[in-house]
Design brief:
By secondary structure, this protein is an alpha+beta fold. The chain has a single domain, classed as Sandwich (Jelly Rolls), CATH 2.60.120. It contains eleven helices and 20 strands. Strands 2, 8, 10, 11, 12, 13, 14, 18 and 20 form a nine-stranded antiparallel sheet that branches. Strands 1, 5, 6, 9, 15, 16, 17 and 19 form an eight-stranded antiparallel sheet that branches. The protein binds 2-acetamido-2-deoxy-beta-D-glucopyranose (7 copies). The site of one 2-acetamido-2-deoxy-beta-D-glucopyranose has 2 residues, from loops. GO terms for molecular function: hydrolase activity, hydrolyzing O-glycosyl compounds.
């Protein structure tokens, strides 16, 4: 991996002035062909869901006649009290080396009380040592997107960065919440995003840094709408990104973020959306377990708002050598490892919302510092707990990666 990386540094620098080539596209009828389905209850963020396996996913991931990829919450099953609802978490079977620019065109995002969707990337192996980049993420009735970078210690967000979003006060990317940036452009999440026809995100993963842009539908640059396998992609006129973590003295991105795979998921409640304080911020109810009790059980509240409609996800790079099949990545990913796992284990359904156990341990750790999540700097006190850290800290029983 290391030598591959160094080789790619040259590619990347050379590519800056030139158009990048389309090296991977997820779209149309084949959108879901090359993803792993988690196949396990949400032990990543303690949401009240079973992330179903591929066999059970047919009503939750599918392509519409017009070619949009749908990723949905189960909104038809009657869920008995204290049981989880079916949902999906999928991860790309390819990893993408540094030097990749992702373009994600989304027509609809899931939103609403208890709903916690994300489109993000993660490295293979230990979290957060291999890096995690949250491109699209929000909970409940939030009206803006929140982006984040998660790394091992030794990487912090530079100050005075040329970005249009608002970084959280915490600049260290290694604590549980990572270093977050709140989107300031309008219509980046929730009902407004959907009613506005959606929009496009681009994420550049480069030796020069990690950068995320967002454009609402009417403002998508022609360099993106006109990009094709023959023209490639020119990012030179995009202007300042919404979020930027430039490589420099505060963080060497090459050393902190390894090849990334894409992840798309929706969970319900859990360690962020279900936190008492977080849930009450936009859903006006801080009674015990309100997130689960009000939304998840019985017929549920997931009518027409709890699904992604994705037009495409594309990856551009100087060379398709940046696309690495998971079979070539050493150490099988947790996702593929878990795909064969049984989902018959016992998920801690009743408790996870509001996370009775979580609220004490978790909300102290993220952006807000001790006590409660905070909106300072715009970040809604997200709470991310990797298994490893949680286990060490004895805080919570969470295994695996987090958002
Ligand atoms: C960042 O790390 C890479 C890989 O170790 C190294 O080649 C590069 O020189 C570093 N960049 C800076 C600015 O230190
Ligand atoms: C708050 O949640 C509880 C538990 O689900 C529910 O009984 C109550 O009706 C909710 N209150 C409001 C105002 O939504
Ligand atoms: C259930 O979700 C689907 C998306 O998967 C949506 O099209 C449908 O309208 C929803 N059903 C109801 C009754 O709202
Ligand atoms: C990379 O591009 C070459 C030349 O177009 C092609 O032959 C090869 O199959 C591609 N590899 C992948 C993994 O897409
Ligand atoms: C992959 O990882 C295993 C265990 O860490 C190691 O024994 C093996 O040598 C590695 N293989 C390669 C090709 O790096
Ligand atoms: C998928 O999950 C269901 C429900 O847990 C299980 O019955 C089934 O055996 C699984 N299928 C595969 C192929 O793992
Ligand atoms: C949630 O808030 C309610 C009312 O403020 C409180 O009674 C309950 O103990 C809280 N639950 C947790 C898990 O913090």
């Amino acid at each position: 991996m290391r030598s591959a990386l160094l080789t790619l540094l040259c590619f990347t620098s050379a590519a800056l002035a030139a158009n990048l080539n389309l090296v991977k596209e997820y779209s149309g009828s084949g959108f879901f062909d090359e993803w792993d389905y988690y196949g396990h209850w949400d032990d990543l963020t303690n949401g009240n869901v079973i992330f179903v396996n591929k066999t059970d996913s047919t009503s939750l991931t599918y392509v519409t006649p017009s070619g949009q990829a749908i990723v949905a919450i189960d909104n038809t099953t009657f869920v008995p009290a204290n049981n989880p609802r079916n949902a999906v978490s999928i991860s790309s079977q390819d990893y993408f080396e540094i030097g990749t620019v992702f373009v994600i065109d989304v027509a609809r995002l899931p939103w609403g009380c208890s709903v916690w969707p994300a489109i993000w990337t993660r490295g293979n192996g230990d979290w957060p040592a291999t890096g995690e980049i949250d491109i699209i993420e929000g909970v409940n009735r939030m009206t803006f997107n929140q982006m984040a970078l998660h790394t091992s210690p030794g990487c912090s967000a530079a100050t005075g960065t040329d970005q249009t979003g608002s970084p959280s006060a915490n600049t260290d990317c290694s604590p549980l919440s990572g270093c977050t940036v709140k989107e300031n452009k309008p219509n980046s999440f929730g009902d407004d995003f959907n009613n506005n026809g959606g929009g496009v995100w681009a994420m550049q993963f480069d030796v020069s840094g990690i950068f995320i842009w967002f454009w609402q539908r009417s403002e998508i640059p022609s360099s993106i709408t006109g990009a094709s396998s023959t023209t490639g992609l020119d990012i030179s006129a995009w202007g300042p990104p919404s979020a930027a973590w430039p490589s420099g003295p505060s963080c060497n991105i090459s050393e902190h973020v390894s090849a990334q795979q894409l992840v798309i998921d929706i969970t319900l409640c859990g360690d962020w959306a279900g936190l008492n304080t977080t849930y009450a911020q936009t859903c006006d109810n801080s009674t015990y377990n309100a997130c689960y009790l009000t939304n998840v059980q019985y017929q549920g509240t997931y009518t027409d708002d709890a699904y992604f409609a994705i037009n495409y996800i594309r990856a551009f790079a100087a060379s398709n050598a940046t696309v690495v099949p998971e079979s070539m990545i050493n150490g099988t990913s947790s996702a593929s490892g878990a795909s064969g796992a049984s989902s018959t284990g016992t998920p801690p359904v009743t408790i996870s919302s509001g996370a009775s156990s979580a609220s004490s341990g978790l909300s102290g750790s993220p952006t807000g510092g001790a006590g409660s999540p905070t909106q300072t700097g715009g970040a809604l006190g997200s709470t991310y707990v990797p298994a490893i850290l949680a286990g060490v800290a004895g805080v919570l029983v969470i295994t695996g990666l987090s958002f």
